[in-house]
Every structure is written in C-alpha cells, then in structure tokens.
C-alpha cells in the first residue's frame, strides 16, 4: 500500500450566527469564505468549517488548560516574525479582538506569538520562530 499523506484539514466550529461569523472571517481575518469553508493562504494555511449551532448554548470554546488563562481552538504557524507582525497589524487594523499581544519566549526558538478571539470567543493563536534570525 502506497504512503498517503494528508494534504489539509479543517477545524469545525459551531457558531451562534453563521452569516455574522462568515463576515468576521472575511472582513477581519481576510479569509476566503464559501458555503463550505473558511480558508486563508490555501488549504495548508488557516482552514475552518463554520456550522450554525442549534442554540447559543451549543457554542463552547475550549476551556483553558491547567495553568493557562485562555483556551485555544487553533494554532497557526507562521514562517517568520516579519510575516507574523504583518498579520498582527492587519488583524488589529481590521478590528480583531487581540487577547494576547505579541510576545517573545527567548527560551523556545526564540518563539513569538499573539492570539485573537472571534465573535463567539474561539481563540486562534499565531506564532513561530524567526528562521535563525537574531532579534
């Protein structure tokens, strides 16, 4: 049997208002939005499937892990800090709710990241190393 590789995946999110969520992901995060998916930077970038929840109580963002303040639904890796900073500036300029401002962990990479929450409280983090560049 030949080795088959997964080429992409989509995280499924139940949302309180499908049309508002579609507008948010299109207008604030710059995603391509269709009736089937929400993607940015192709299917190997940010990929979501938004589904209308039966009731608002069905929308349940992840709870924080032990020792954390925020629960995450999705983590997006970015190639370098220049790209990460551009995303941050774009999202913030479009009105995103930034819940973790950009910060650097010097002991892991060093690693830089930030996070935002969508209109249903789902948290998406963005981060990465700087490909060997010294900051």
From TrEMBL:
Top-rank taxon: Bacteria
Matches recorded under Gene3D superfamilies: 2,3-Dihydroxybiphenyl 1,2-Dioxygenase, domain 1 (3.10.180.10)
InterPro entries the record matches: Glyas_Bleomycin-R_OHBP_Dase, Glyas_Fos-R_dOase_dom, VOC_core
Domain VOC: from-to ranges: 7-129
Protein name: VOC family protein
Source organism of this protein record: Cytobacillus spartinae
